[in-house]
Amino acid sequence: MTTADATTAPDIKVVGARTFLQRFKPLETIVDGLPTPRGGVVSVTGPTGAGKTTVMAGLAVALKLGRLFAGREVTQGSVLWLAGENPDDFAMHLLATVQHLGLTPGDLSSPVDPINLWVVPGTFSVLDKLDYLDDVVAGQMDNVVAVFVDTSAAFFTGPDENDNVAMRRHASILRELATLPGRPTVFVLCHPVKSANGDNLIPRGGGAFLAEVDANLTLHKDAAGIVTLHWAGKIRGTTFDPIRFELVPVELQGHVDCRGKPIHSTAAVHIPAERAEALENKALDDENRLLIAMTRKPGASVADLAMAAGMTVGGGTPNKSKVHRLLQLLQAQGLTKKNRAGFWSLTGKGREAANELP
Which residues are CB-neighbours of 236 under 8 A, at least 6 positions away? Predict the structure, then answer.
């Protein structure tokens, strides 16, 4: 055996297990019981309309104010939100969240408060602006605990989101945000791969992107309108039970559209298991009532089905929008179908399901 020349020797050091273990420091999570490691990267994957921005806006506000998130303690600190995909949409969800909590925008950002929620509207190259962000964070922000990237696709500079090499590099670039002063947790809001379902929501880029994150949180909205926060594909640390939210409508005070009409958005409200179960049972009951109505009135219009199922709004007007939504949900289950003329009917599977109902 020969001794390696000092100029070519690898820059490594052999240490004893005792020394190695003495250096060990447990991961600090910024949300108790959730895989949110400080200095780590967490993807948040959900289809359009599943509540990604709404729920994460609630988390951002909770972190800034030091309030509980879904009943869990958080590490209070400044938050940076990169609003690349749709800054106006984020503004509406943030306003709705603030209003629902009885707060004002001044509660999120104040010149006299060292802890604030900061927003960067628009897209840019994260790699090119990293030094600028580092300077701003170091000079203006105190104890930054989280950076939200909204969305991964908006900040992707490669040619193809299905290119594994490009997506791995993209994830590595986003990880650089975790090196900003304060070692924030980086939450990357992601759209799922085309083949993903509610139980297997994996971010675009598949295994290449997933390999670069510390955990993949998921958001999925069911037929009852309940949004469930869980995980899929990868998690470092202890798993957790699904967390459920209800998206409540909020009229944005002081804001109207170009015709002077009120503007509405939604806020995410954590709901206990008992209420979630009640909402799920109500949704199933609505589906069952519609199935029975379709057996009694084959070929009926949507309005007639609404009346037959007892689904009306003020004044006894048929709630056609609700019936449309239920018909589409039943179609996804293979229980209903729509012909070229636009009329709905039961499938063979749907007739069997209806016949089994009391």
Answer: 27, 35, 37, 40, 214, 215
